[in-house]
UniProtKB/TrEMBL annotation:
Database matches in InterPro entries: CHP02241, Phage_T4_Gp19
Organism placement in taxonomy: Bacteria, Bacillati, Actinomycetota, Actinomycetes, Micromonosporales
Pfam families documented for this protein: Phage_T4_gp19
Protein name in UniProt: Phage tail-like protein
NCBIfam families registered for this protein in UniProt: conserved hypothetical phage tail region protein
Gene Ontology molecular function, alphabetical: structural molecule activity
Length: 164
C-alpha cells in the first residue's frame, strides 16, 4: 500500500492561490531568450483512443490509449531587424531541418521569477506569415511563426530546457 500524496498548497481549505497571468511569459530557444512574443497558441497533447468490446461481454466498450500527437505551436511576435528566426526558417525551406529545444516560460506576477515552463522537444519552423502592412494603421507589425515539435514537457519553476 502506498502512502497518500501530500496535499498541495492550492488544495488546502482557506488558502487562496492566484492563477498566473497569460501575458507574462518569455520564449527560450536552446536556453537563449528570443524576441518579444505577444502570443503563443497550440500548447497541447492528444492521446487517441481505441474502442473495443470485451470478448463474451458485448455490452461493455473499453477504451485504451493509442497514438500520441502534439499540435504545432504558433508564436506571434513584433517585427524586428533580428534575422535569427528567419534564418532558422530558411534552413527548413532549404531541406536542412535544424531541430531545437524551445521553452515557453510563464513568469510570476513580479515578472522576474519562473513559475512554469513548457518544453517543446526537437522543434523546427513549419510556417511563417508576415505582418499585414498598412500605411494608415498605427498597430505594431506582428509576424507569425508555427513550430512543429516531437514532444511536450511541463516543469515547475526554475527548470532548464533539455539540451539538444
Amino acid at each position: 500500500m502506498t502512502a497518500p500524496l501530500p496535499a498541495s498548497p492550492a488544495a488546502q481549505p482557506g488558502n487562496v492561490v492566484d492563477p498566473y497571468r497569460a501575458y507574462n511569459f518569455k520564449l527560450l530557444i536552446n536556453n537563449v531568450t528570443e524576441g518579444h512574443f505577444t502570443e503563443v497558441n497550440g500548447l497541447g497533447v492528444k492521446v487517441e483512443r481505441i474502442s473495443y468490446r470485451e470478448a463474451g461481454n458485448n455490452s461493455i466498450v473499453r477504451a485504451i490509449p493509442s497514438r500520441v500527437t502534439y499540435p504545432p505551436v504558433t508564436l506571434r511576435f513584433g517585427l524586428t531587424d533580428s534575422a535569427d528566426l528567419w534564418d532558422w526558417l530558411m534552413t527548413a525551406v532549404e531541406g536542412r531541418v535544424n531541430r531545437r529545444n524551445v521553452s515557453i516560460v510563464v513568469l510570476d506576477s513580479s515578472g522576474s521569477t519562473e513559475a512554469i515552463r513548457w518544453n517543446l522537444l526537437n522543434a523546427w519552423p513549419q510556417e511563417w506569415y508576415g505582418s499585414p502592412l498598412d500605411a494608415m494603421s498605427r498597430e505594431l507589425a506582428i509576424e507569425t511563426l508555427t513550430l512543429a515539435h516531437e514532444g511536450l514537457q511541463r516543469e515547475a519553476g526554475g527548470g532548464q530546457a533539455p539540451t539538444a
